[in-house]
From TrEMBL:
Organism: Beggiatoa leptomitoformis
Reactions catalysed according to its record: epoxyqueuosine(34) in tRNA + AH2 = queuosine(34) in tRNA + A + H2O
GO cellular component terms given for this protein: cytoplasm
UniProt KW Transmembrane helix keyword: no
Family: Belongs to the QueG family.
Enzyme nomenclature, EC number: 1.17.99.6
Record's protein name: Epoxyqueuosine reductase
GO MF annotations, alphabetized: 4 iron, 4 sulfur cluster binding; cobalamin binding; epoxyqueuosine reductase activity; metal ion binding
UniProt remark on cofactor binding: Binds 2 [4Fe-4S] clusters per monomer.
Sites where the protein binds tRNA: K226
Keyword Iron-sulfur: yes
Protein purpose: Catalyzes the conversion of epoxyqueuosine (oQ) to queuosine (Q), which is a hypermodified base found in the wobble positions of tRNA(Asp), tRNA(Asn), tRNA(His) and tRNA(Tyr).
Length: 349
């Protein structure tokens, strides 16, 4: 008879050998998280992310998504490619583009999914007929509540998962299994009275501790949202053209963050402190070439130009920037043209 305690220990060891920094196991009771999700959706804080409500309770009830699921194996993989001092330096250069640090290297979906599949195969070699599904931010899965239950960290006031030893610069992935594995114990939360993430958020998207209005979040506006960015929020975006790391930059627990040793997450040369003008001048073919295998490609060329136009409108005015924007006034996209016109009006007033 299989000793599930020993088997769970083996799974965790195999995960570490595959490059994950932590592996935990949880049950599938997400009752509290489901109530939080329903309220968040009812408040409309998900904005245009209709997929958050599309699948009903499958997101919060793993056995509805994958029948017979009993446990979820959650993994953590650290991605921080540079020091926080270097990140802040880029944020403070208005003519440079700031890209959320998780997206500077290879698409994390591909990296984690490949490793998770290897882990799942290793598990199935030990038990014939075992049911499993691998997920990396690719299906209706409440990954942060599951990781919290698995002891990988706690959900902070900015709604990201925090680990006391390494901070929050990490990816999560899951394997749904039908094995009655022993579960791990959740850790205590350690945000205390800290309000740093609420205070620093450029657009005040963290409307209260543990409550995020995605409609104001720069990550949502520059990645998920495809429409016209609200005019009142554009100046607050600064030079952030893809995502935002501010709430993580000020989190005290990230003083313990370690630089990644994963070569796939190291920055691509074209994305290391790039001038906004350089990126704005990319043709669509160049955009596709430079972002091949990157998470950035998912937003598409139109959103790419829209985001950079906003950042250029927030930059220190120069003749080169104004000339660069003027060259885009004739682009076919009405969305891009609108943001270019806004940027020019802002710089030339």
């Amino acid at each position: 008879m299989l000793d599930y305690n020993v088997f769970a220990s083996n799974i965790k060891q195999w995960g570490i050998e595959l490059g994950f920094q932590q592996v935990g196991i949880s049950d599938i009771d997400l009752t509290t998280a489901e109530q939080t999700l329903i309220q968040w959706l009812n408040d409309g804080y998900h904005g245009d992310m209709a997929f958050m409500a599309k699948h009903g309770t499958k997101r919060s009830r793993p056995a509805e998504l994958v029948p017979d699921t009993l446990r979820v194996i959650s993994v953590r993989m650290d991605y921080l490619p540079e020091s926080q001092m270097q990140m802040l330096a880029v944020l403070n250069q208005s003519g440079s583009a700031y890209i959320s640090r998780y997206a500077l290297g290879r698409d994390y979906h591909k990296v984690l999914r490949q490793r998770l599949k290897q882990l799942a195969i290793r598990i199935t070699k030990e038990i014939d007929g075992q049911i499993y599904r691998v997920f990396v931010d690719s299906a209706p899965v409440l990954e942060k509540p599951l990781a919290e239950k698995a002891g990988l960290g706690w959900i902070g006031k900015h709604t990201n998962l925090i680990n006391r030893q390494v901070g929050s610069y990490f990816f999560l992935g899951e394997i749904y299994v039908d094995l009655p594995l022993p579960v791990d114990v959740p850790v205590n939360a350690h945000c205390g009275r800290c309000q740093a993430c609420l205070t620093i958020c450029p657009t005040q998207a963290i409307i209260a501790p543990y409550q995020l209005d995605a409609r104001r979040c720069i990550a949502y506006l520059t990645i998920e949202f495809k429409g016209s960015i609200p005019i009142e929020l554009r100046p607050l975006i600064g030079n952030r053209i893809y995502g935002c790391d501010d709430c993580q930059l000020v989190c005290p627990w990230n003083r313990f963050a370690q630089l990644t040793t994963e070569s796939d997450f190291l920055p691509r040369q074209a994305l290391i402190n790039p001038p906004l003008i350089t990126l704005f001048n990319w043709t669509e073919a160049e955009f596709l070439q430079q972002t091949e295998g990157s998470a950035i490609r998912r937003i598409g060329y139109e959103s790419w130009l829209r985001n950079i136009a906003v950042a250029l409108g927030n930059a220190t005015p120069t003749t080169d920037i104004i000339a660069c924007l003027q060259q885009r006034l004739s682009v076919p996209s009405t969305i891009v043209r609108e943001h270019v016109e806004w940027a020019l009006q802002r710089l030339q007033r």
